Amino acid sequence: MHPWHRLTPRGRIVVLTGALLAVFGAFLAQRDLFWLGAFAVCVVLGALILVSWPVRGLRHERRIPVASVPVGTAFQVQMRVLGSAAVWPRLLRFEDVVPQSMGMRPRFALSGGISVVGEEVTYQLVGAERGRFRIGPLLVRSLDPFGLARNDMAFATITEVAVTPHIFELGRLRAGASGASAETHTARAGLVGQDDVLVREYRRGDDVRRVHWRSTARVGELMVRREEQSWQPTTRLVLDNRRSAHAGTGSASSFEWSVSAAASAGIALLGTGTTLELADADGQSLGPDGDRAMRAQQLISELTDVKLTRADSLAAALATPGEDRPQGSSVVAVLGRLGPGDLAILVDSLPGSGSGHAMVLDVDTFVGLPASTSQRQYAHELAEHGWSVVLVRAGTTVPNAWAQLHRAAEVLG
What whole-number distance in Å separates Cα of residue 332 and Cα of residue 341? Predict the structure, then answer.
């Protein structure tokens, strides 16, 4: 950085004033005036040298007790600045770079020498928006005692924190064939004897150790034993993330309500033992295979990162790659603004022996507009085609919408 840019406004005034005094003193043969101006210039030069001297041995540690927080939650950041005997006593001002949505940048100052033990500062941030954010780097400004010059430096270390969707505790939903619960399906599967093994055709990628040779010989095609989780009900959780289907900004938008509802519904469904899939307008983002113990964490991670897309159809969200929807499966959808094409896709995607459940958002109400008659009509038509449907307006909480959906499912069941 150019020396002139390292001067503070005060330093620039002092050096210009000193230079003028020195010039006028020399021109008017006023020795005292000349030396006064020269002294002022020398003080500024000394300040530049002081702040430009490297701050050796200075380091910092930033600690965040949690790696993720639900949206709207405050959390603390602990900062420890450590020095060494080689650090000259000086005034140091620190500023930690934080996302604008989390609040004002924390600033603090330390004067004199910084010990090896260090100085600790704690500040608070709020995860106002969902997503993954970086905290840092830590900016350091070195100042002289008179505030005439400054030198800006920055540490390279950053810390990531995830702001996850707000998850509400919800009750169980009657999802599955004819409203059957997960426990019912599990009990039925347990009644199958060892001689009545459930089998299916071999698919590419299946483990050869699962080949059922007796059925293969009887059918004449390679058959494999179904995994235990295939006997569990399968639920596809659909999140409508089309940009055209939502309105509003920030945490009050219809999309953020949908993400929170999808996360809460997913956790509730996992609690029933169902095999959960997650899909949006871009396609399936979480398949049925994988570690069931990690499923909740994977679900929250996917919904932390989900963003609005320019896709204009829900076809990819409701399509199952490579196979038809399994019998007894269900669909739970959180839907934004619908159109005639969306209605046809939703009706066709309903499994023959399964069930469909939809929270249809009246998106216009999330930006203060009157309720949409077309959205209410689409919700009614979905219900006419066998879906359990609840129309959600702004101000409706996720637990209330879920309770209404549960009652609608009971009526159909």
Answer: 19
Stated pTM of the model:
0.76
User: Tokens at residue 388, please?
Assistant: 């359990």
- If you ran DSSP here, which 8-state letter would residue 194 be given? T
Residue range 140-186, pLDDT digits in tens:
988 888 889 988 888 889 999 999 999 999 977 655 443 333 333 33
- In what helix (H) or strand (E) does residue 123 lie, and over which residues does it extend? strand 119-126
Task: Answer whether 351's CB lies under 8 Å from 383's CB.
Answer: no
CATH 3.40.50.410 fits 177-181+233-412, yes or no: yes
Tokens standing for 274? 């169902």
Q: Tokens 């790696």 identify what position?
A: 67
Q: How far is CA 262 from the centre of its chain?
A: 13
Residue 400 Ramachandran class (φ > 0 left, ψ -120 to 50 alpha, else beta): alpha
Q: Which CATH architecture is the domain 59-164 placed in?
A: Sandwich (2.60)
Category of 395 on φ-ψ map: left (φ > 0), alpha (ψ -120 to 50) or beta: left
DSSP 348-411: HHS-TTSEEEEEEE-GGGGGTPPPPHHHHHHHHHHHHTTEEEEEE-TT--HHHHHHHHHHHHHH
User: What's the whole-number mean pLDDT along residues 259-281?
Assistant: 92
**DSSP label of 102:** G
CA distance readout (Å), 279 to 25, 28, 287, 364: 80, 84, 8, 24
Degrees (nearest 5) of the Cα angle 188, 194, 196? Answer: 65
pLDDT at 351: 65
**Residue 341 CB coordination number (10 Å):** 12
Q: Report yes or no: 163 and 130 within 8 Å, Cβ to Cβ.
A: yes
Side by side, which strands form the sheet with 107-110?
107-110, 91-96, 138-143, 150-154
The CA distances from residue 325 to 178, 179, 322, 408, in Å, are 15, 17, 10, 23
Strands (E), 221-306: 223-225, 234-239, 275-280, 283-286
Q: What is the maximum alpha-carbon separation in the chain? A: 118
Mean pLDDT of 324-345: 84
> What residue ranges do the domains of the chain occupy?
3-52, 59-164, 177-181+233-412, 193-231
pLDDT of residue 45: 93
